[in-house]
Write a structure and sequence with these properties.
59% helix, mainly alpha, two-stranded parallel sheet, single chain, 3 domains
Length: 395
């Protein structure tokens, strides 16, 4: 199949004029294939090809030849896809979400128009005048049939069934659009600024078609909702990693998270941010120091909020919490570090140790102010250890 696709490209090269070459789903192609088109983007307008077993050089200067490529930022398995830099820099690139603009209504309608043939009930509209499609859509949106006319003739039962399924299609489309919006937003975000795992579930025409083929006029709203959830549950399972996180994010987008799922999603985001802070394996001794200090800082934040609201409850447990960190600092101070970083780290650990002991005996004097100072101190220590470790200065 791949060979036949390449032969089609070479046939287009051989035709040489008044040709539009369209490559879809380029996220599944080898980057070496895409690199072949780089020379078409510069002044030479030449490209190498093979036709009937013979290599040839095609010169398209002065010819009407256009190449259009379309793809997604992730593969179906969830892997990151990137267009070769030289091609991306020389070609005209567009983000579908950025160029829709005032045509958003047409884009939204295209989801339904492109999935008509996948549904048995709406399939009869596929070969009819396009005005009939918009007529059914209008009735489904307004629940009003007055003033709506059809080019072709349909029985009342057919119209009722088409309207019922069209309402379901619009419900599915709304979900697809939300998923697509989040997919584009997540793909455009740099990894350094993420606060949760990247979202890799897609809201494409393919997803719309797969759901549309299961819709029947007799289905209830609950059944339609279940079909949508089941579809994206299956989509999440095809990802090589992050299946659970992506499914929970989908349910968050749809407002369908249960209390248990919400707690699990919060835990995943918490672990994601902790792992990003550590910047390495949790089995590393330095990373364990950072993790324990991070846990304690979160506890201090909670105590600070309690102190701001009322000191009585916080004071019952703050002494024990601080003594716990004192022990952590003492224990972790004995870790084996290299000589270059051990001295500075020991100084900062000792300083924090002394500061903690001071706070433990000073709760009656501006507790909230001292606590905030301590939190800042812990933040500084975390950054110091993390930077030293990531720079390779510690073992």
């Amino acid at each position: 199949a791949a060979r036949q696709e390449v032969e089609k490209i070479n046939l287009a090269f051989e035709m040489g004029d008044n040709v539009l070459i369209y490559l879809d789903d380029i996220q599944h192609t080898n980057p070496e294939l895409l690199q072949k088109f780089i020379s078409l983007c510069d002044g030479t307008r030449r490209i190498e090809g093979v036709y009937k077993g013979k290599s040839r050089t095609y010169d398209f200067r002065g010819r009407k030849v256009a190449v259009v490529m379309a793809g997604n930022p992730y593969t179906e398995a969830g892997g990151k896809f990137q267009i070769p830099d030289m091609l991306a820099n020389r070609a005209d690139t567009y983000n579908l979400g950025d160029i829709i603009g005032e045509n958003s209504q047409h884009f939204e309608a295209s989801y339904i128009e492109n999935s008509l043939t996948s549904n048995r009930t709406l399939g009869i509209l596929a070969g009819k005048d396009r005005k009939d499609v918009y007529a059914v859509m209008q009735i489904a949106e307004t629940d009003q049939r007055e003033g709506v006319s059809f080019v072709s003739s349909y029985s009342m039962e057919e119209i009722n069934d088409m309207v019922a399924v069209m309402k379901m299609m619009m419900r599915v489309r709304d979900t697809i659009l939300r998923v697509n919006l989040e997919y584009v937003r997540s793909a455009a975000q740099a990894d350094d600024y993420r606060t949760e795992p990247s979202f890799k579930l897609q809201g494409s025409y393919r997803n719309m078609n797969r759901i549309a083929e299961k819709l029947l006029p007799i289905m209830s709203d609950a059944e339609v909702e279940q079909i949508i959830v089941d579809h994206y549950t299956g989509e999440a399972q095809t990802l090589t990693d992050g299946a659970e996180a992506n499914l929970l994010k989908f349910k968050e987008i749809e407002g369908k998270l249960s209390e248990a799922e919400q707690a699990r999603w919060d835990e995943i985001k918490k672990r994601f941010n902790r792992k990003k802070l550590l910047g390495g394996s949790e089995g590393d001794p330095i990373n364990r120091v950072v993790a324990q200090l991070s846990d304690f800082k979160e506890g201090l934040d909670g105590i600070g909020q309690a102190l701001a609201a009322g000191r009585s409850d916080a004071e019952n447990g703050i002494g024990g919490a601080i003594r716990e960190l004192v022990n952590v600092v003492q224990d972790q101070g004995a870790l084996s570090l290299d000589r270059a970083s051990a001295h500075q780290t020991d100084i900062e650990l000792s300083s924090s140790h002394a500061h903690l002991q001071e706070v433990a005996f000073s709760l009656d004097e501006s507790s909230l102010t001292i606590l905030n100072t301590l939190i800042t101190s812990i933040d500084s220590l975390l950054s110091r250890i993390s930077v030293n470790h990531n720079d390779g200065s510690s073992q």
